[in-house]
């Protein structure tokens, strides 16, 4: 396997494209040039730092350090899920719900791949475990955040209808079934779109990276298919767990709607 090494000068040439976009924003008075440059600088700093950390983790190959890195990744995913909610839940649920869903879904999908399809030696080798977990979390996080946001805002929007159904004797599961179905559908749309367009509209990042590093295209395709299946499974599981937990939090054992457990609208 061969790959073409990149120098910092090569990256600087590619960065000119970002500067061109910043110049267009400045010329058109869009006001995005500062945010664009800051995002690019932040991205470079974060990726360089992650590269150094991963290099150290790969050299040590400690299961405990790998577990610690995985938990940090899940914690950041939980923070991002919370940040994308217009009206998040209050208290520990604000991060715990998304984090718990991501931990369960990401762990299940990653362990499945490591112990059945890939089977590295040792099975917890961070060179395989962390990139897999990162791809799964990054994609499943989108579905979970969209699904949760759709559920929480949908319950507020349909409050009158839900409370009317509860007053008629429906259980909380029956009264919330409409917003739950809509939220679950919304959470799965991104991964469905990704699978539908992969290979025709775009070449996924993992597959492209493997091909550029010298992996035969057919082998790269196999790995990409595996990853897409893992992402789809983790997304479905994560969205389901998050939505069921959110619906349970928005009601109580006496089948009452508890919108007081939502934070005020950010807008």
Mean pLDDT: 89
- What fraction of the residues are assigned to beta strands by DSSP? under 5%
User: Which residues sit in consecutive blocks of at least 5 with pLDDT less than 50?
Assistant: none
**How far do the termini sit from each other?**
52 Å
Task: Give helix and strand order, one letter per element, not per position.
Answer: HHHHHHHHHH
SS-based structural class? mainly alpha
Q: How helix-rich are the residues, as a percent range?
A: over 70%
Shape: globular
- Tally the helices: what do you get? 10
Radius of gyration: 22 Å
Question: Domains counted in the coordinates: how many?
Answer: 2
Main pleated sheet:
none
Total strands: 0
Q: Main attributes?
A:
267 residues; mainly alpha; 2 domains; 10 helices
Describe the protein.
There is one protein chain. The chain is an all-alpha fold. The protein has two domains: 1-60, no CATH class; 62-261, no CATH class. Helices cover 76% and strands 0% of the residues. It contains ten helices and no strands. It has helices spanning 8-27, 33-60, 63-83, 93-118, 126-157, 159-167, 172-175, 177-197, 205-212, 217-249. Helix 1 packs antiparallel against helix 2 (33-60), helix 5 (126-157) crosses helix 8 (177-197) and helix 8 (177-197) runs antiparallel to helix 10 (217-249). The chain is globular and about 70 Å long. The N and C termini lie far apart (52 Å).
